[in-house]
Amino acid sequence: MHACEGAMTPTAHGEYYRELTAHRPLLHAHGLDDPTRWVMWNAGALGIPVGQEGLFQEALGLLDDLMKTTKATTYIEQALMSALISTRFEVRALGDYIYHYWDTSKEVQVILRRFFAPLASADHEGELKAYNGFGWDNEDIAAIRRGVRHRAHLLAGKFRRSVSKRWARILAKARRDTLPGKG
After folding, report:
1. Would the pLDDT of 7 be above 90?
2. What is the mean pLDDT of residues 96-106?
3. How confident is the model at residue 119 (pLDDT cuts 50, 70, 90)?
4. For 181, left (φ over 0), alpha (ψ -120 to 50), or beta?
5. CA quadruple 169, 61, 89, 28: dihedral sign
6. Residue 112 CA from chain centroid, whole number
7. Which of 14, 68, 144, 151 sits a CA distance of 20 to 30 A from 107?
8. How far apart are CA 42 and CA 99, in angstroms?
9. Where exactly are the structural domains of the chain?
10. Residue 103 forms beta bridges with which residues?
11. Rounded distance, CA 94 to CA 75, Å?
12. Confidence of residue 11 (pLDDT cuts 50, 70, 90)
């Protein structure tokens, strides 16, 4: 997986730890009954051993079962996949081999727009030269982050996501309350 974010404990990644431990009977059937082995990984990249492709189908089925009653609807799939993989396999970080820009994704969008804009009129040779020299650095990211318009854009997005998360929780609760046997 991409990068280790640390053990899942009552305090570290506590919301997911509590959510997963609340479903211990369900998790037990999948060999996930030892929370001391649960490690949270950033799931920007994921590889599994050859022959273990059924893990994805198992994870989806387990996630479907969890979503019927879980309170944590954001990143629960990351927590579940992390618990599955860290319990079943020796996990290695891919950070030395790939660059996953999740922590700078908003700034990289600015850099990519800046990069692609002039390429619309470039010839093939010009495109190849641009691709070969493409990159960004921490100074560029920092300068973008300091920009007033960028910060306002991030704040507006954070507000929209907050409203969306609250709405998703309301809908999830409504679904749980209408499940058969919930009278």
Report:
1. yes
2. 75
3. confident
4. left
5. positive
6. 21
7. 14
8. 12
9. 3-88, 102-177
10. none
11. 20
12. very high
